[in-house]
Design brief:
The complex is a heterodimer of chains A (376) and B (339).
Chain A lengths: L1 H12 L1 H21 L3 H4 L2 H27 L8 H14 L10 H20 L7 H21 L1 H4 L24 H22 L2 H11 L1 H6 L4 H27 L9 H14 L4 H29 L13 H15 L8 H7 L8 H5 L2 H8 L1
Chain B lengths: L12 E12 L2 E12 L3 E5 L6 H8 L7 E6 L2 E5 L6 H24 L3 H23 L2 H9 L8 H6 L2 E3 L12 H8 L8 H6 L2 H20 L15 H13 L5 E5 L7 H18 L2 E5 L3 H7 L2 E6 L2 E6 L1 H6 L1 H8 L5
Chain lengths: 376, 339
């Protein structure tokens, strides 16, 4: 344990380096893991890689939502709206729909910027709201945005969506459904970059202001924090992360349609953030990855396994149909047993457990806040 | 930091409240209160429970707009009921109105609707930008308001920037943040790192952060919390939480400090220490202090001037000795004499 604690402390002192090293390990480790049994027996390695890049979209979404919900404490139930805006931005920029064929890489920035802009626009009217009321309004926005894309038929083809979206291109990388390695590498790069950015923001003046607002908005304002711009910044940055995910998702699938951005997406991402451990960047990423893999691989395999058992009444059960029931149960169970999530930040754990905790070395080691002080 | 000057209670005025009234519906919590705080002085505001002291505090800290009256900080008006407030919505609809008129004129002149459509989209964009500006209130928007004669009250964070800091009656720390982080949040207006600095971890930002942490530690030491930097603030003992709140307020480098019952719930020993601390801060930092306090020993000991509120109205002003002898004050506190 002490070796682990020491490792953790070193990691927190050299945050950027440790995040990059972490992503190199994850980026190389996952394909290796997928190419040897038992995983390679379940499904072909390319399918795993494809799944990992799709999981990356959700990890990205969860990281972005974690800025809004986990750091700034603003409950956003319409997060899929920004995912949609990023996706449609790329669809307009790189498909026969309008006739533009802008490359993927600049479009990443455009998608992020467009989503950030709408993050500010949708965030601005909600600034005075808190808690439940904020959740309801954001829920509304989350419904309005796909509805707009659905009904603006002349531009978006309505329910038919926009097809023929170009995949990215980069020298030496292959972006095809058969060989998704290019998508995988791109996603790992984006994730590593986003995570470094989030960690740096979290430990800066801006991150402190977010946390202060989450803890006590009135006291934050009275301490000089401009709550208006600080909250809008959280909305904008959270949304821009979703914009990145949207651009990537659209380029990967080659198609966008309004049905991809329903409430279930917002809900799933929120569940990922909560299960992973609000406020803890790696925890949220792992939570998103695990939930996505459960949803896409584990339940499918469970189906096959159970159907092969040949037990009468189980033969017709499709576990994928019960996905949200299982989510619900998992969330309820989580709230009862471990409300702070699987991998909580020290701060969140303190918030959710009332008894004051003893301040051992362990506690200080895993607290992201103390780090800046220790290095100083 | 404010230059260390000898306290000159008779010098110029740092904060002046003129006829401040705050009503909640029919209930007038504060009525026509005039109050002036001399630079470097300690002024106390006392009164029985429910006299309107905290409401008055909230008004001058920018948390609640007054129903009428003006609050001036260092001579410039910061807080008042908005003047010509109706002009602001006019500014909001101006770009749209202008562009719509141009669109209609150009459409009727050229006979083509294309220009009109473009101008209408431009109107929409302009409208969104102006409304956003009204929310964020950037400098150009504020100076525009000033130009057309609209006055809007400063927000709490504007007041902090202008040199006012406060503590709360019931401690409001960022409970799950460490002591040093609480102080660092207090330094928010005096730090400059923006998101881009943080993202690129610019040398400037790193230097600033490092010196900020060092400075935060000196603030903690100043209030007697040396070496407690990394303790979670909710785990601190009650008295230390009060001190931490004081350190957080000092971190914004105020010239005027508002203390709302700084010794509430303290034992006599702690109260004495806090009183000494307040006196020391005033001397060391050249602070002006406005104090709400129930403990008469504290008030009488350190105040240059005492204002007494009762039922929202100012019933007495003067030196501690004068106030102590004032029959109306005695009546407000102890009730009317039996015969």
């Amino acid at each position: 344990m002490s070796a682990f604690a020491r490792l953790r402390e070193t990691a927190s002192q050299h945050r950027t380096m440790s995040v990059l090293i972490g992503w190199v390990i994850v980026g190389l480790g996952l394909p290796i893991l997928a190419s040897v049994p038992p995983l390679s027996v379940l499904q072909p390695t390319t399918l795993w890689i494809d799944g990992f890049s799709k999981a990356g979209i959700y990890v990205l979404l969860a990281l972005g939502l974690n800025i809004v919900v986990g750091l700034a404490g603003l409950l956003d139930l319409g997060y899929a709206a920004f995912f949609a805006i990023g996706s449609y931005a790329y669809a307009f920029g790189a498909s026969p729909q309008i006739g533009l064929h802008i490359p993927f890489w600049p479009m990443l920035l455009v998608g992020a910027a467009a989503a950030a802009m709408f993050g500010i626009l949708l965030g601005a009217p909600t600034l005075r709201l808190r808690g439940d009321y904020l959740a309801i309004v954001t829920l509304g926005f989350g419904e309005i945005v796909p509805a707009v894309f659905l009904n603006a038929r002349s531009v978006t083809n309505g329910t038919n969506g926009i097809g023929g979206i170009l995949p990215p291109s980069a020298p030496g990388l292959i972006f095809t459904p058969v060989n998704p390695s290019g998508f995988y590498i791109t996603m790992v790069l984006i994730l590593a970059l986003v995570m470094v950015a989030i960690y740096r923001l979290q430990d800066s003046r801006v991150g402190r202001a977010w946390m202060a607002i989450r803890e006590d908005e009135l006291a934050a304002a009275s301490s000089g924090v401009n709550t208006v711009t600080t909250k809008l910044l959280a909305f904008a940055l959270g949304a821009s992360t979703a914009g990145l995910a949207g651009v990537f998702g659209a380029s990967k699938l080659g198609y966008v349609g309004p049905e991809q951005f329903g409430f279930t997406v917002s809900f799933t991402v929120l569940a990922m953030v909560v299960l992973g451990g609000m406020g803890n960047v790696w925890g949220v990423a792992i939570g998103a990855f695990v939930l996505f893999e459960i949803q896409t691989v584990f339940l499918k395999q469970l189906n096959t396994f159970v159907h092969n058992l040949g037990i009468g009444f189980l033969a017709n059960v499709n576990f994928l149909d019960y996905q949200y029931l299982l989510y619900g149960l998992a969330l309820v169970g989580m709230m009862l047993v471990r409300p702070e999530g699987l991998f909580p930040s020290g701060r969140r754990r303190r918030e959710l457990h009332d008894e004051p905790d003893d301040l051992g070395a362990d506690e200080q080691g895993d607290d992201p806040s103390t780090r800046s002080v220790e290095t100083a | 930091m404010t230059a260390t000057t000898a306290p000159t209670p008779s010098g110029d005025t740092i904060l002046e409240a003129k006829a401040v009234t705050k009503a909640f519906g029919g209930l007038v919590a504060v009525r026509e209160v005039d109050l002036a705080i001399p630079r470097g002085g300690i002024v106390s505001l006392i009164g029985p429970n429910g006299a309107g002291k905290t409401t008055f505090f909230n008004v001058i800290a920018g948390l609640q707009d007054p129903t009428s009256g003006v609050v001036e900080l260092s001579g410039s008006p910061m807080i008042a009921k908005s003047i010509r407030g109706w002009l602001e919505p006019v500014i909001w609809v101006m770009p749209t109105a202008l562009l719509v008129v141009i669109a209609m004129v150009s459409m009727s002149v050229t006979g083509s609707s294309d220009i009109g459509a473009v101008l209408l989209i431009a109107a929409l964009v302009a409208e969104v930008l102006v409304l956003l500006a009204a929310i964020v209130r950037p400098n150009w928007y504020l100076s525009l308001l000033k130009k057309v004669g609209v006055f809007r009250s400063a927000r709490p964070n504007d007041m902090v920037r202008a040199g006012l800091a406060r503590t709360f009656q019931n401690i409001r720390l960022f409970q799950n943040m460490t002591a040093v982080e609480n102080v660092l949040v207090g330094m928010h207006t005096r730090l400059h790192a923006n998101p881009a600095d943080a993202f690129f971890s610019s040398p400037r930002a790193r230097r600033e952060e490092k010196s900020a942490v060092a400075k935060a530690q000196t603030y903690l030491a100043m209030v007697g919390l040396k070496g407690r930097d990394n303790e979670i603030s909710r785990n601190l003992p009650y008295g230390d939480q009060r001190r931490l709140e004081l350190a957080r307020a000092l971190a914004s480098e105020p010239s005027l400090l508002l203390l709302d019952e700084p010794t509430a719930g303290m034992n006599p020993n702690e109260t004495l220490e806090m009183t000494r601390l307040i006196g020391k801060l005033r001397a060391d930092l050249g602070l002006s202090i406005l104090l709400i306090e129930h403990d008469m020993k504290v008030v009488m000991g350190i105040s240059d001037r005492i204002y007494v509120l009762d039922h929202g109205e100012l019933i007495a002003v003067g030196s501690p000795a004068e106030v102590r002898a004032n029959p109306r004050v005695i009546e407000a506190y102890l009730g009317q004499a039996a015969s």
